[in-house]
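User: Assemble these into one structure.

Assistant: Restating your components, then the assembled model:
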Amino acid sequence: MRDGEAVETVAPPLARGKPAARRRHRPRSYWTLRIGVAVLVFYALVAVLSVFWTPYDPLTPGIGDGYDAPSLAFPLGTDRLGADMLSRLMAGARYDLGIAAVAVAIALTVGTTIGVLSGYFGGTLDTVVMRGVEIFQAFPGLLFAMLVVQAVGAGLVNVILVLSFVGIPDYLRLARAEIQAKKSWQYAEAARLAGNLPWRVAFRHLLPNSIGPLLAFTSINAAFAALVTASLGFLGLGLGPNVPEWGNMIARGQDGIMTGQWWVSFFPGLAILGLTGALYLLGDALADLTDPRRRRQ
Amino acid sequence: MSPGRALLQVRDLAKVFPVAGGRKLFAVDGVTLEIAAGETLALVGESGSGKSTVARCILRLVEPTGGEITIGGEPMLGLPASRLTAMYRRIQMVFQDPNASLNPRMSIRQLLEEPLRLHLYLLRSERARRVQELIEMVGLTTGHLDRYPHELSGGQRQRIGIARAIAVSPEVVILDEPTSSLDVSVRGQVLDLLLDLQQRLNLAYLFITHDLQVVQHVADRVAVMYLGGIVEQGATEAIFAAPRHPYTQALLSAAPVARWGVKRTRTRLAGEISSPIDPPDACRLVGRCPLARPSCSQGKPALVGTGDGRSIACPVVIDTLPQPVAERIPSC
Amino acid sequence: MSDILLEVENFSGAFRGETGDLAPVLHGVSYALETGLMTAVVGESGSGKSLTALSILGIQPPAFERTGGRILFRGQDLCGLDERAMRRVRGAEISMVFQDARAALNPVFTVGRQLADVWQLQHGGSRKAAMGQAIEALRRVSIPEPERRARQYPHEYSGGMAQRAMIAMAALVCEPSLLILDEPTTGLDVTIQSDIMELIVELSRTRGLTTCLITHDLGVVVETCQNVVVMNAGRVVESGSAEAIFTRPRDAYTQRLLASSVLVEAA
């Protein structure tokens, strides 16, 4: 159609109410949140349950003949030494979830606290902290974890501590950035006038408003922690040889893959996949939900 | 006005920001003013005038680089954080943006109780009573107390901001463009509320604004700022009836009036506002001012009293006035 | 009575929420822009004045859907045009100036480059010629040292100067018949506001533009616009000549708006 012609154009169909055949449109984050949470809850329940009951003792070899394929007696088969896979898998949940959870909790608390202080007060404190963090982060996380674990020796506590350390810088930076962004907002100034001492403004007013990105990040970070835990276990570092940690179990089943005993490595691998996948889904959903551009209801 | 009655006294306030390349930005460059109880001084200026920075310096939300500030004789500068916090019982602020000045995660009740808890150490029952009092003083109801800021309108939020500011019964309230973010229909109501509260509580107001209508409506005296300094000061009526400083004339004549048939003649300044970074030691208006003389480029003019309760920072204008120059220290 | 260049005819629209429901925001908005005149659309925040204007150009938010009415430009319904046709209308026929000029300009290109690009898009020709036109446009809107300014980036401009550049782009580089300005002076200092409004009036007059000024500031309207449309909560409450609206407002809302726009009567 040319401009200047008074042509009667046909307008596109007008929107009227709720179109009949369309379902209620749910945002993507609705499902990712629920699936992520459901899977995590399932894992947590399994971990708790394994404290009280497993089909067989996870640490005892020789229950089966060794490399038994999945069957009614052993739903996930047995490993090379004849220990029941299902029991080991269930017990492993305690390790992979537990280590990741504790490490993340420590990293979150320590990293956020330092980050908030550094971000709010700035100055020399901030400079010192940031240089420290930069030096620290010059080493790749997994490599660093490996080196330190080799140096300080094996053991559950050491692994958790190392993992926490590796996680601190990211929380620190995130919290610092959030606080710096909000520091000059008027409600921060108002909080000061209301009688809060500076540190209270930072923790009581600014930090709660930064929960969103921190939460979303925690989920992703927990996935990373779980992967590092499994990786360390896979490499035989950190925990004992017979510990039913999933990474460890994958390593022990490596030979079996070639010779057809796929279940020894497969199920622990699946477990890790499920855990990290659920954490990523959750993180994705949290990121969407806490996005400040979403209109508050 | 006798200096003895002044509640808030600011002398030679200065704030210099370092900028890239070793240069300095003179945001506030020697501001002196006084306000007595029950009085309103409006601080007017356009962007870059430094008026908001003055407010934040007085409250030490931004640390001034020079000058003195006293409230009822007590100095604000040089106090440690805890003593400074205590000073916020005497001086408070109403912020410009009602969206940004209320913590979105706190309920209205929590927002109002906080200063009562931290400044006055009131017990829960006393706080509840005071909060009730405050909410009614600003024209809202108890029902609003359990809501969150995003559930209220802009005008309502600003009322909460006002309630919070007067919660501790301060003596001086600084208002930083309190109605700029509000619709015109709400603006009048909020201003009337502020005037009412001032009368009831005998508050001294430092009213920062760019809106000349607001100045005429609420202010007893007005100080006009340009590039960090006060260029003219005096009683509102006098200044608006006969502005003397070229910048004041340009500013006042530029303000549109929403009335049919009102003719304005504009006094214009040439060019654009000059940079506040490393300014030369000259009158800040040089290059734009129709009255500029060579002597204007040789040193920044001081704010000088003209003996009629007004002061002006322009030697050219002073020379044209009939009265003798009374004193160097700004009167009124 | 001049011709009508653009007519908004009973235009209604709603926002579609995440759950699929429609929340109506515009209710039968109708007004006409007379050729060659400046019309103000005034209202407070949430009145729908900006939303209607964005709909004229087809740049309304994606969640907004038309539920009724038409927008006729020279008799042709703009709502019926596809994106390609709309693109021919934008700039060449109808052009818009937004509130925050520095945000509306692309920060990674120089101002001159942006103006020149638009010139080439609208009129073709060589890059060099386009740049020359860009510099002329800057000069025409009283930006001093336009050759130097053309090589600068938007963040190097002051608010008022950036707004002048935007006006240059919308009114001079593009050569529209209709210029829409959405709160062009809000946020600017009052001395700059006056200067910008004078520029707009002058350009409209010399180029015979039809101008639609959207604003909440009645002071800006009274000296510049011939017609006024008053909107409230998605409806047009009153419209007429500026003189009629300001001296003999009939609707209660208009009267309240006028009353609250002036706090102190001029001496």
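Chain C has eleven helices and ten strands.
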